[in-house]
Amino acid sequence: MRVLRVATAGTAHPFGDERTVRQAFPKAIAAEDADPFLMCDNFAFAPEKANFGEDEFPIGWHPHRGMDILSYQKTGLGRHGDSLGHRETYETPGIQWMSCGSGVEHAEGGGGDGELMKGFQIWVNVPSSKKLDDPRYGTHPPSEIPTERGAGVARRLLAGAIGDEKGPFETATPVQMVDWELEAGASLEHELPSTMDTALLYVYEGGARVNGAAAAAHDVVELDASSAEDRGLDITAGPDGCAAMLFAGKKLREPIAHGPIVMNSQSEIQQAFKELRSGKFPPVRVPWDYKRASARPKK
After folding, report:
1. What CATH number matches the domain at 3-249, 3.40.50.2300, 3.40.50.1010, 2.60.120.10, 3.65.10.20?
2. Is 258 annotated to bind ligand?
3. Model confidence over 183-204: pLDDT tens digits?
4. Predicted pLDDT at 165
5. Residue pLDDT, tens place only, 245-256
């Protein structure tokens, strides 16, 4: 595939405080070009303290609607609570995902005895016809992520299919998401699925040549996936090795109105916040106080 451009991820403050992330998109690649991918935040946080109470989360309770969310944590211990009644911890590198549908509230973080938490939060848009579906959820430890190693390359398949393997992130929009780690000088070749017309590679560590173009750490390579014949991706790691994430998908080409709620119009956003203010959000939830672990019924 032809390289359209190489852009550098920007800095974002998603929590409204001093914590920052490197944002591959939309900071480096605009929403129209990244479609169906809405956001990729690459984080590295040292927890404020080693141990949090069961109802304490560094990223507190907040709402989402109308999108799919993947939390892919590479170090530390993943932790999550939500309005569907889930209270989960998971080993890393592992994932926790939500297809938010008609709405969820969740909180996350604060696991792992103070170990540095490194990873990604990724938002994927969904078609307007699926934005108010019932929400779905999944947590997957390292053993449940299809992984392949060989010739200086490690691959984790997070979403979509490669051959007979399928990533565990169950998106409402067809995507392929792959995490590669390459040793110094190692190379790989990959064929993009024929149905997908968005292809972005985020180099988050080290450096590489991507289809002939140089990419340093925190560079995003946008590739031309419009041709039915040119579907190849070639990566060769530089002297410091390379870690890179592939984001491939089918463009929805629908209008976007969003914050933590992703709909097609401002009136739909206003409706969601009206439900929040009236206590009717999320419409699908457990019947107990999901913000208190002790309220969960005993099995």
Report:
1. 2.60.120.10
2. no
3. 999 999 999 999 999 999 999 9
4. 97
5. 999 999 999 999
pLDDT at site 254 = 96
Q: Is 190 annotated as a binding residue?
A: no
Amino acid 114: pLDDT = 66
Please determine, for residue 153, whether its predicted confidence score (pLDDT) is greater than 70: yes
Please report the DSSP string for the chain in residue order. --EEEEEE-EEE-TTSSS--EEEEETTTS-HHHHTTEEEEEEEEE--SSS---TT--SEEEEEEBSEEEEEEE-SS-EEEEETTS-EEEE-SSEEEEEE-TT-EEEEE---STT--EEEEEEEEE--GGGTTSPPEEEEE-GGGS-EEEETTEEEEEEESEETTEE-S---SS-EEEEEEEE-TT-EEEEE--TT--EEEEEEEEEEEEETTEEE-TTEEEEE----SS--EEEEEEEEEEEEEEEEEE-------EESSBEESSHHHHHHHHHHHHHT--SSS--SS-TT-GGGSPP-
Give me the pLDDT at residue 226, please. Answer: 94
Q: Please give the model's pTM, rounded to 2 decimal places.
A: 0.94
User: Residue 102 and residue 181: Cα distance in Å, rounded?
Assistant: 36
